[in-house]
Write a structure and sequence with these properties.
The chain is α+β, with helices and mostly antiparallel strands. It starts with 14 loop residues before the first helix and ends in a 13-residue tail after the last helix. It is elongated. Helix 38 packs across helix 43. It is 43% helix and 16% strand. Strands 1, 26, 27, 28, 29, 30, 31 and 32 form an 8-stranded mixed sheet that branches. The protein has a 5-stranded antiparallel sheet with strand order 10-11-12-13-14, with no helix packed on it. Keywords: Nucleus, Transport. Pfam families: Nucleoporin_N (PF08801). This is Nucleoporin Nup133/Nup155-like N-terminal domain-containing protein. One of its GO terms (molecular function) is structural constituent of nuclear pore. Belongs to the nucleoporin Nup133 family.
């Protein structure tokens, strides 16, 4: 219906004639299994089933269709995915042999979410996983006779059956089918609905081993006749189902009738409850079934991740003119109500499809689909039109895309008319076929729409006559591709998309045929094989432009392919349409292809003759060296060599021959790739690539690495198969029909098949061993699907065995690749800044996932016996080595590039420490087990140490190579081997001091200071550098080194340390120093300075003594000050300015302490604090009553001796003696430099602009006018009298 008139083989014209009674395909002849017992698991005894089994069909295939392919680049034909299981074939043959009449005798479909295909033949329902390369484990369910309908009813067409499948335990989209690939079934419920009779059957769990119960629900129409039951008013148009969250095997289903009524089915293992939805309420199932104008067409769920509002879900109903939005509560008695509607066919052309325009007679909304994100609604529309010129009628098919507004708020009031617009037009309707023949309504309403496949934006339309047409708007026009096979494949029953293995939204289109199994439509087939929509009108026979026939279309180029294709005149009209000129991208694609063809020809000539024939000059002229990376011509050629798909490896001969065929094919690839490298060297292309395109040359060499690894992996698999066939396995292992490596190969091959639909006709193992360049996919599967390879539900010994097998495979693969790199190192380009494949994130993530699982498995008590644990431990050590080496390679490249790598370094260190720690802990268990086996009942420490050293030697080497200092320290500590420790400290010199600093830190944290200092004897510079922030220990090391002056400075600094937390990074055990401890340290510092006797040691000693005086003064000041006598002032040092300010607030004694503090400070401190010093003189003056002293001395007539004696008791006299007496203890200069005594002294010293004198300071005092002479007399007398000779005399009050 949707296809243009494309030329087909003449034999295909027999399809219509043969369709009514097709001949059953003969069963394939049986073959006995090999008596030698060597067999590939899950391989059929007859090899891979052919895409068809009928010899007559095989004979009708054009030979051009069966040419062997060397690759997948030119494949634009449908690709065979899976054959029907044999039980389905047998049922089909049996049904046809009974001469059952009718065209729609088979019904089938594909469930997108679970990748399960189903087919109904007679009274049996078959369900199987169509993605398995070999269809097996097909489930057969008997369809009850009550579902078939009344005996008097018309024969039931196959299209009247619908199956809904629910996976009770859903998982992530990227891995939801992995278990099925390995034949591990998840609990799954199935609803089977007879849309004609409305009968429903429900299987709560089709994979249940026991109690696979069946629940039935009949419509219960009472005495109605069969003709009434079969009438349109009682059939279902569409049905959808969903699991009830939080319940056990409960689900709901919603169905719509053509009359517009909705039915709700609540299914559980106990039964099915059927209720009719009338508007916004539920009514009894026996409600009136009279027709109305709603015309329910199609139902679709809004994806749960979009519509989830608590337990509510939204679904949409397409009617004859609108889209209705409904909401259902899955937990609260399944309350269902309509919450909105929007007109699709109306008078507003901007918001909907405009009706009643000229030439338009009728509009049908046929089907609706919602994308996985719930953003786009696609509606298939058919419009009956009248040609105003010829007067003939025709049908126009179009696709309307609407955007859903997620933020739309619907009214909660039932009385409100709910006509809110929640859909907006994305673009004008896309015309699929402008003019097609007029169909009756039954044919129109049998059409179904599917979305989400590749190419992006394409849709597939299934019609009731069994055709499938892919439509896509591409390069400014709509293109159509009709699925067709060159033999009679029967009708297309259903279509879906192949789930992506990487959680991507889109997959290739896949169709279920009636006779030929399941086929996929490659993306390139749609783009290259599609044609523009034909223009047909039934008013004339044939095509309206049938007179002009274009036999050959011009070459069409897209991407990197140039594929000529024949098309009918309906595709391109000669003279009316011009081919577009080649764009810049297309021109570059042509140049690339010409260069690749030239390279292949030159290489072919080299293989034959050994001559290069000026290849470098020719290739350079052809632009072969212009692309870098994967797009480089040489890289693409190398990739095609290692990825070549050989002929199908299936055979009816011995399995040993099959295994040798795989190996020989890989060896042939290796030899050809080596030839290619020789060609590059002899032609000097290697020199060009190595110097100018290093990344491309590295990729070419990596192809050789991967190929070498794949060959060794295949040898390992052969050895494992031989081992299984020749050894006696444990009871637990006997239940495992396949090994873990086989499961891994299946998953990797399946991932490649899903992502590259052209490989769907190949087996998983064949794809795995062919796609050599994509070996990173193996590690991707380890990272994302390890739970399917090694199930935690299996016996612990089985888990250990399977983990051992997978780990061995990874190590074998990587080691073989690294060995190839070592053997061919002279072929490689300079490695600066280049990242190798084994350092990629996907590889590191896969190895880490496996290593993490093994660590968890080995950490479980009683998981397996110690011998198996020991073997697995050895493999974990190998995984650790290759993972850490990958990190080192990546870090080196990032450092050379100048890229940021801080996060990567942290990840590397964390994983290194975790791996080495786990390895070492288990190694001690292995050592203990071996020691118990070896000793003769008596303790033998020497034997135990010998075993210990032998077991931990690989861990020691890895830890030493990767700076695993914690593990190295633990090993040395457990061995108590100081010789080994010192050797490692000498060898392990890394950043931040290397292993030596780590050892020092551990000793400090454990307070083993004596051991630390003993190591300082051998590691003098290292320990001195480490202790540069640890003054409390550094001085001891310096004393040992006879560096007394340095030790004195260290002690001096440590004694005056202000904060106890300044070295918290080194240790957290530091305590604040008391005054007594500080004084002791200062004495030690003085002794060390005296012992060192440097040239300036006198200055050092003087400074130490001054600090000792200040320390003593603080003790005294704090004792005299109750407010300051707190804990913090008894340990922490105060600044001299703080001490002086404390003295200014107190009595006579403390006022003098302030001058003593000034005397013990440096001259710079006194100079910068002149104002504070002046305040001290003013405070000292305030301590005595000078006016009274002056008055008494005058009234009583004191002699000079009596006045002098009285002045000696004043604070001014005492302060003057402390500061200015000839033998006063003043550190670093004199007070005369800062504050001279007399005013004239300031002028004599030239300090007019810098400071005042004591006299000038006292002149500011309020009592100076009355007693100024006495004040100055006291100051001058204190300056002239010796400080030690004068005794203080108290003033007589």
């Amino acid at each position: 219906m949707f296809s243009p008139a494309i030329r087909k083989p003449h034999l295909l014209h027999r399809r219509d004639r043969d369709e009514a009674s097709p001949s059953p395909p003969p069963a394939a002849p049986g073959h006995t299994p090999s008596p030698r017992g060597f067999a590939i698991p899950d391989r059929p005894t007859t090899g891979t089933p052919a895409p068809w089994t009928s010899s007559s069909l095989l004979a009708r295939i054009s030979t051009s269709k069966r040419t062997d392919r060397s690759g997948d680049s030119d494949q634009i034909q449908p690709v065979h995915v899976a054959e029907f299981p044999q039980v389905v074939r047998n049922a089909q043959a049996s049904l046809l042999q009974k001469n059952f009449s009718g065209k729609n005798i088979f019904a089938g479909g594909i469930d997108k979410e679970t990748s399960l295909a189903w087919m109904i033949c007679g009274n049996e329902l078959f369900i199987w996983n169509y993605l398995a390369s070999v269809a097996k484990d097909c489930l057969v369910l008997e369809v009850p006779s009550s579902l078939i309908g009344h005996k008097d009813a018309n024969p039931l067409p196959g299209i009247q059956w619908t199956v809904c499948i629910m996976r009770w335990h859903s998982s992530d989209a990227s891995i939801r089918n992995s278990g099925e690939i390995l034949h591990r079934k998840s609990s799954t419920g199935v609803i089977l609905c007879n849309k004609r009779t409305q009968a429903v059957a429900y299987w709560p769990d089709i994979y249940a081993e026991f109690n696979r119960s069946l629940v039935l629900s009949s419509p219960g129409y009472g005495d109605m006749s069969a003709s009434d039951v079969a009438s349109d008013c009682f059939r279902f148009n569409s049905i959808i189902a969903a699991a009830v969250p939080g319940s056990i095997r409960k689900c709901i289903a919603i169905a719509t009738e053509p009359a517009g009524a909705l039915w709700l089915f609540q299914c559980s293992p106990e039964g099915i409850r059927r209720e009719q939805v009338n508007g916004d309420t539920l009514v009894d199932g026996g409600a009136d079934h009279s027709l109305n104008s709603n015309g329910g067409r199609s139902l679709a769920w809004l994806p749960s991740n979009v519509s989830a509002e608590g337990s509510d879900r939204k679904f949409f109903l397409l009617t004859n003119n609108e889209v209705q939005c409904w909401s259902i509560s899955l937990l609260h008695e399944n309350n269902i109500k309509k919450i909105g509607s929007q007109e699709i066919v109306g008078t507003d052309g901007d918001a909907s499809i405009k009706k009643d325009i000229a030439g338009q007679k009728n509009i049908w909304l046929l089907d609706m689909q919602i994308d996985e994100h719930g953003k786009e609604f696609s509606i298939l529309v058919a419009t009956l039109c009248k040609d105003r010129v010829s007067g003939s009628n025709y049908t126009q098919y179009s696709l309307l895309t609407m955007l859903y507004n997620h933020n739309q708020k619907f009214s909660s009031e039932d009385s409100v008319v709910k006509v809110e617009r929640f859909l907006e037009k994305k673009a004008p309707s896309q015309v699929i076929i402008p003019k097609a023949r007029v169909e009756d309504e039954d044919s129109l309403f049998s059409m179904r729409l599917k979305t989400g496949g590749k190419p992006s934006g394409s849709v597939i339309i299934l019609s009731g006559d069994g055709t499938a047409t892919v439509a896509i708007y591409w390069r400014g026009s709509t293109r159509l591709y009709k699925f067709d096979l060159p033999w009679d494949a029967g009708k297309v029953l259903d279509a879906s998309i192949i789930p992506s293995a990487e959680d991507r939204d889109e997959g290739a289109w896949v169709v279920l045929t009636e006779k030929a199994g399941i086929w996929a439509i490659p993306e390139k087939a749609v783009l290259v094989g599609g044609v523009e929509p034909p223009e047909r009108s039934l008013s004339r026979k044939g095509s309206c432009n049938e007179a002009v026939v274009e036999e050959k279309r011009r070459t069409q180029v897209f991407s990197a392919s140039v594929v000529p294709r024949r098309a009918s005149s309906e595709a391109w009209s000669a003279g009316e349409r011009q081919r577009p000129a080649l764009t810049g991208i297309a021109q570059q694609a042509v140049v690339d292809e010409e260069s690749e063809i030239l390279l292949n020809r030159l290489f072919h000539d080299f293989i034959i003759s050994g001559a290069v024939n000026e290849a470098l000059h020719k290739l350079r002229a052809a632009g072969a060296f212009e692309k870098e990376g994967e797009m480089n011509i040489f890289v693409r050629t190398s990739k095609s060599i290692v990825n070549t798909l050989a002929k199908h490896w299936t055979t009816t001969r011995e399995a040993e021959f099959l295994a040798s065929t795989i190996v020989s094919s890989l060896v042939e690839k290796q030899q050809k790739h080596q030839k290619f490298l020789q060609f590059l060297v002899l032609s000097k292309c290697h020199e060009e690539l190595t110097s100018k395109q290093r990344a491309a040359m590295l990729t070419i060499m990596e192809h050789g690495e991967k190929l070498s690894g794949i060959i060794q992996l295949r040898e390992l698999q052969n050895a494992l198969i031989q081992q299984r066939s020749s050894t006696h396995l444990s009871p637990q292992l006997k239940t495992q029909s396949t090994g873990a490596l086989w499961n891994l190969i299946q998953l990797v091959g399946e991932k490649a098949r899903r992502n590259t639909v052209l490989l769907m006709d190949r087996e998983n193992a064949e794809v795995f061993y062919s796609r050599v360049s994509d070996i990173e996919d193996l590690f991707y599967c380890l990272s994302h699907q390890l739970q399917y390879i090694i199930s935690r539900e299996e016996h612990p010994s089985v888990q250990v065995q399977r983990a051992l097998e997978v780990a061995t495979a990874c190590i074998t693969l990587v080691h073989a690749a690294l060995h190839y790199r070592k053997e061919h190192k002279e072929w490689y380009p300079s490695p600066e800044g280049l990242i190798t494949w084994n350092s990629h994130l996907v590889v590191r993530s896969g190895i880490w996932s496996l290593a993490s699982f093994i660590m968890e498995l080995l950490g479980e008590s009683g998981a397996a016996d110690m011998s198996m644990k020991s073997n697995l431990w050895s493999q974990l050590e190998g995984l650790t080595d290759i993972l850490l080496e990958a990190y080192i390679g990546l870090l080196t490249a990032k450092f050379e590039r100048g890229d940021e790598h801080g996060v990567l370094v942290q990840e590397y260190c964390e994983r290194r420490d975790e791996l080495l720690g786990s390895l070492y802990n288990l190694a001690k268990q292995i050592v203990e087990a071996k020691y118990q086996e070896s000793r003769d009942g008596t303790d033998n420490p020497g034997l135990k140490e010998s075993i210990f050293r032998g077991v931990i030697s690989p861990i020691l080497a890895t830890a030493k190579r990767h700076e695993g200092y914690q593990t190295l320290w633990q090993i040395c500590s457990d061995l108590n081997d100081s010789v080994l420790l010192r050797s490692l400290m000498h060898d392990s010199v890394g950043p931040h001091g290397g292993f030596s600093f780590f050892v020092f830190k551990e000793l400090v944290n454990s307070r083993h200071y004596s051991k630390l200092l003993r190591l300082g004897e051998e590691f003098q510079e290292e320990l001195a550098s480490f202790l540069k922030d640890r003054s409390d220990l550094l001085w001891l090391h310096e004393i040992y080194l006879n560096q007394f002056s340095s030790a004195s400075e260290t002690l001096h600094t440590y004694a005056l340390r202000g904060s106890p937390d300044e070295d918290a990074s080194v240790t957290t055990s530091r305590k604040p120093l008391s005054f007594a401890e500080r004084r002791r340290l200062l004495y030690l510092s003085k002794i060390a300075a005296t012992a060192g006797k440097d040239m300036d040691y006198d200055v050092k000693v003087a400074r130490i003594e001054a600090d000792m005086r200040i320390l003593k003064l603080q003790e005294e000041i704090v004792q005299h000050d109750p407010e300051s006598a707190q804990v913090k002032y008894t340990t922490a040092l105060l600044d001299p300015s703080e001490l002086i300010e404390m003295c200014l607030k107190r009595d006579q004694d403390l006022s003098l302490k302030a001058f003593e503090v000034f005397a013990s400070t440096s001259s710079s401190f006194r100079s910068s604090n002149r104002g504070l010093l002046e305040a001290c003189w003013m405070n000292a003056t305030n301590q005595d009553d000078w006016v009274k002293l002056s008055q008494v001395s005058t009234s009583e007539g004191w002699s000079d001796e009596v006045i002098q004696e009285s002045l000696q008791g004043t604070v001014l006299f005492k302060a003057s003696r402390i500061c200015y007496s000839p033998d006063s203890l003043v550190y670093d200069g004199t007070f005369e430099d800062v504050l001279p005594v007399k005013k004239e002294d300031v002028h004599l010293r030239g300090l007019e602009t810098k400071c005042l004198s004591v006299e000038e300071v006292l002149m500011q005092h309020k009592d100076f006018p009355d007693a100024g002479k006495l004040m100055m007399a006291a100051v001058i007398m204190g300056k002239e009298l010796p400080y030690t000779a004068a005794e203080p005399v108290e003033m007589d009050t």
